[in-house]
Amino acid sequence: MAHIECSGIVKSYGAHPVIDGLNLMIPDHEFVVFLGPSGCGKSTMLRMIAGLEEVTAGRISIGGADVTNRHPGQRGVAMVFQSYALYPHMTVADNITFGLRRAGVPGPEIDRRLGEVARMLGLEPMLNRKPKAMSGGQQQRVAMARAMIKTPKVFLFDEPLSNLDAKLREKLRTEIRKMHNSLKTTTIFVTHDQLEAMTIADRIVLMRAGAIEQQGTPDEIFDRPATRFVADFIGSPSMNFRLGRIERGAAVAGSVRIPLPPGRFAVAEGQEVELGLRPTRMERVSPGAEGAITGRVSLIENMGAEGQIIAEVDGADMSFVTRDFRGLSIGDPVSFALSPDHLHIFDRATGRSCLA
Amino acid sequence: MTRQRFILLTLAPALTVLGLLAAVSTAGAVWFSLMNRVLGSPDYEFVGLYNYLRLLRDKRFFNALEISLIWELITVAGTLVVAVLLAVLVHETVKRALWRNLICFAFLAPVLLPRVAAAFIWRFLYSPSLGLLNWIVGEAGLGPVEFLANPSLALVSVAVVDIWQWGLFFTVILVKLLETMPRDPIEAAMLDNARTWQIHAYVTLPMLKGPLISLALVKAVESLRSFDLIFVMTGGGPGTATETLDLYAYQSGINLGGRVSYASAMSILLLIVTTVAFTLIWRASRKWSR
Ligand SMILES: Nc1ncnc2c1ncn2[C@@H]1O[C@H](COP(=O)(O)OP(=O)(O)O)[C@@H](O)[C@H]1O
Ligand SMILES: [Mg+2]
């Protein structure tokens, strides 16, 4: 078990830096998710921590020891790949124990540990099979067993669930989180799926173009996004944005007028801003209520327990989520309001949140 | 067009040519092998299986069979060992694409040489008085080595030429195969703390088992056709130290006795033995490469 420290990490391919001066501290036992759009440098960052990619500049330490120049096998990390990366010609048992055999662990000890992880991951009946004869989910379990058996200081996951179907993804996600709850090994998990990140993380490190845009608990990231980019990236359905300005203690955008809770925002009268309204933080209200937004229903998406209403407000779509959607039909007038504590305001020029 | 008819139609031209060339000459050889024809004499009679029975009592025939077998083993194993070692070496040490391509190009050159040319080059290199190799050996303080005239060295010396041509060629193929391997299992092995040679021994080469077996089969078939190389370099000598079956068949059928029928019987026997052997190897290799 160990904390991880990355300081001043730079990675360039040719002249163009992919990661540019990134600093990150991950405490012991934490489950951290690197989240961000594809191509933002998550895998590169993870692979540098694993030692599969050299850093152009900066230092990485694991458990207090500087590992920047250590061979991947000497860093005490185990990694699970998106492609499973199993040794195709070896049986499941050989795949799992390959690392221990390289480390010269005695046979009986290997057998004992193999039995243990195989039981934990439900792999006992297939220890003699070859990876080819297994489903994607089973192969990824083998890859997890191969990582676990080494009892590493750090687990690294690079989009391990992206090749699986939705149901299996959810199941394995739960298993990975349970595994962490019992083993408490420091874990970095890379994904581009914000829902996956929200559900599994202790802390999310949200990356954009090779830099950290914001880090924090899932709640912090969801409720207090530091920038418009974060607000837009997190949450499904995604946030509604409206260009507006601050006028007499309220945020105004067309017919939308939302009074500002005193002291919540650091904004000036007349400031050009962008409002962010989370669909899940809005609810139907009676017309004419305080802060009500009125529009015309243009689409209803039934999601089972709730429905997403897309309404036309001032000639543009605005969506919100409600349980009370069954009486509505397309073309109906509808009024809804944002719960007052959940307004987001971003500076139009910098994209930074105006939260005080 | 149905699938079956398509297969038949596309195979037909090749099968026709094969039938005309191979079947006719094979049938001719079988026909000859049942007589006692000799070059230079028009008289002959049918002798049934006499030629075959005589073969079974011919010590020189069994010597040739043994030499052929040893030749197959040395050249196939040598080619693959050289190719695997060199390919791994190039793969691990030469990272620049330009250098790699230059090396591959250089390694391709020997196999592009006509075999007779390669044979003459090496005969010169091996020459006890003029050869480069003997000059090096001489500098090292050892007496001149009769690479081709020493019965215990001759076969290996000829095999070196064959391995020089094909081992380097297969090296190029393996370097390219190693380049196209998926990176992930190799990286997983690095994280499992495998050394470079262990990664190759336990991960990459086993993943290339199928191609390696195919290369071995190709080389085994190719090695059967080394008549020109051996003929130019040693002519089967010294004595019968490098006399493979095809050389012996040539010697007894054309060169010395002109005993065409006897040579035909030998060729037919060679055909049967190789067909059976390769069928068995082919079956087994399909099982291994799985
Ligand atoms: N080997 C490489 N050579 C050149 N550019 C690369 C290489 N690997 C990654 N990149 C670039 O680095 C950026 C980050 O890649 P990556 O870390 O894989 O992103 P992510 O995992 O977040 O999708 C991408 O723009 C990608 O094009
Ligand atoms: Mg990635």
Automatic annotation (TrEMBL), chain A:
Q: Domain (ABC transporter): give its ranges.
A: 4-234
Looking up Pfam families in the UniProt record yields: ABC_tran (PF00005), OB_MalK (PF17912)
- Please give the InterPro entries that the UniProt record associates with this protein: AAA+_ATPase, ABC_transporter-like_ATP-bd, ABC_transporter-like_CS, ABC_transpr_MalK-like, ABC_transpr_MalK/UgpC-like, Mo/tungstate-bd_C_term_dom, NA-bd_OB-fold, OB_MalK-like
A single Gene Ontology MF term assigned here is: ATP hydrolysis activity
Work out whether the entry's keyword set contains Nucleotide-binding.
yes
Q: Which UniProt keywords apply?
A: ATP-binding, Nucleotide-binding, Transport
Kindly list the GO CC terms recorded for this protein. Answer: ATP-binding cassette (ABC) transporter complex, substrate-binding subunit-containing
Q: Which GO terms describe its biological process?
A: carbohydrate transport
Q: Which domain of life is it from?
A: Bacteria
Q: Which family does it belong to?
A: Belongs to the ABC transporter superfamily.
Put simply, this protein is called ABC transporter ATP-binding protein
This chain's source organism reads Fuscibacter oryzae
TrEMBL record, chain B:
**Sections of the chain in a coiled coil:** none
User: Which biological process terms from the Gene Ontology are attached to this UniProt entry?
Assistant: transmembrane transport
The subcellular localization recorded is: Cell membrane
Task: Identify the keywords attached in UniProt to this record, alphabetized.
Answer: Cell membrane, Membrane, Transmembrane, Transmembrane helix, Transport
For this UniProt entry, what is the primary localization, expressed as one broad class?
membrane
Q: Which domain of life is it from?
A: Bacteria
Give the residue spans that cross the bilayer.
Answer: 69-90, 102-125, 153-178, 199-218, 260-282
Q: Looking at the UniProt record for this protein, which Gene Ontology cellular component terms does it annotate, in alphabetical order?
A: plasma membrane
Its record classes its membrane topology as:
Multi-pass membrane protein
Keyword Transport part of the UniProt annotation: yes
Tell me the ranges covered by the ABC transmembrane type-1 domain, including all copies: 65-281
Entry annotated with the keyword Amino-acid biosynthesis: no
What does the similarity note say?
A: Belongs to the binding-protein-dependent transport system permease family.
Protein name (Swiss-Prot/TrEMBL): Sugar ABC transporter permease
Species name: Fuscibacter oryzae
